[in-house]
Every structure is written in structure tokens, then in C-alpha cells.
Design a protein that fits this description.
This protein starts with a helix and ends in a 5-residue tail after the last helix. 62% of the residues lie in helices and 6% in strands. Helix 1 runs antiparallel to helix 3, helix 1 runs parallel beside helix 4 and helix 2 runs antiparallel to helix 4. By secondary structure, the protein is mainly alpha-helical. The chain has a single domain, classed as dinb family like domain (Four Helix Bundle (Hemerythrin (Met), subunit A), Up-down Bundle), CATH 1.20.120. Strand 1 and strand 2 form a beta hairpin. The longest helix has 25 residues.
């Protein structure tokens, strides 16, 4: 499996996991505010990094106040954007250096490959926080482990 194929698999997992979190939040009444805030952050950060890679202006705050329908729309949009992104890339493209400013306005340079790997890890980290928050609020969180998705053939 080449790197692009591996990333396709990881982004398919990421989309599935985000949709699972959305479903668990829809089932929780009332929706735990912190969990919703964390999901909104995951989605905003994914868009922010995509915009940095594509050298576009940042369109969302890092910590937006999204509703569940807004989160659902962002999951759908970013799924399409990441698929299109990967369709235009090959393994050599991932060695490209991306120049960007972080949220503090500092200039940075990162390999494109490191950025896309970070996106997946960042999202998984915050989904873990959502699971903890939902349990603390008395709800059952989504089961979003990567290996579970593979075992159940939810992601190929």
C-alpha cells in the first residue's frame, strides 16, 4: 500500500469516526456542551489545515460554536475536500513544504505529509476527550477505535 492509499484509509476512518460521534451526540439529550464544542473544534481544525495546505485564507475560528447540523455539514464538506485532495496527490507531493501561520500568527513550515498525519491524530485525540466527557455526563460515547472500524469492515 502506498502512502496516498494509506491516507485514503485514514481519512475514511476519520469521516466514519466523526459520523459516529455525531450519532452519539444526537442520541444524548441534552447534548453535552463540551462534547459538541470539541467536535466543532475537530472539524474546524481539519478545515483550517486543509486551507493551510491549499494556501487559502482561514475561514473559521479554531474553536467555533457549531450546532449539530453545522457539524454534520462540516463532516460532509471535509469528507469531499479530503477525497479531492488525495485524488490530486501522489506520494512525492507529500514531501512538499507548506508555509503557514499558526493561530498565534507565528510563521511555520511543515511537510505536507506531517500535516495530514497530524490531522488524523488530532481528531482521534479530541474524540477521546469527547468519549470521556460523554461518559461523565451519563451517556454512552461512540466506539471509534480504528481497529474496531477495520474489524467490522466499516473502513477498508
Amino acid at each position: 500500500m502506498n502512502r496516498i492509499e494509506h491516507l485514503r484509509r485514514l481519512f475514511a476512518y476519520d469521516e466514519w469516526a466523526n459520523r459516529e460521534v455525531l450519532a452519539s451526540l444526537r442520541a444524548a439529550q441534552p447534548v453535552p456542551a463540551r462534547s459538541l464544542k470539541l467536535l466543532a473544534h475537530i472539524l474546524s481544525a481539519e478545515k483550517l489545515w486543509w486551507e493551510r495546505i491549499e494556501q487559502q485564507k482561514q475561514t473559521l475560528p479554531v474553536w467555533p460554536d457549531f450546532t449539530l447540523p453545522q457539524c454534520e455539514a462540516e463532516v460532509a464538506e471535509m469528507s469531499v475536500r479530503w477525497k479531492e485532495y488525495l485524488d490530486k496527490r501522489n506520494d512525492a507531493d507529500l514531501a512538499r513544504v507548506v508555509n503557514y501561520k499558526n493561530s498565534k500568527g507565528e510563521n511555520w513550515r511543515s511537510l505536507e505529509d506531517d500535516i495530514v498525519e497530524h490531522i488524523i491524530m488530532h481528531s482521534a485525540y479530541h474524540r477521546g476527550q469527547i468519549a470521556t466527557d460523554m461518559r461523565a455526563a451519563g451517556f454512552t460515547p461512540a466506539y471509534t477505535d480504528f481497529i474496531h472500524a477495520l474489524r467490522q469492515r466499516l473502513v477498508e
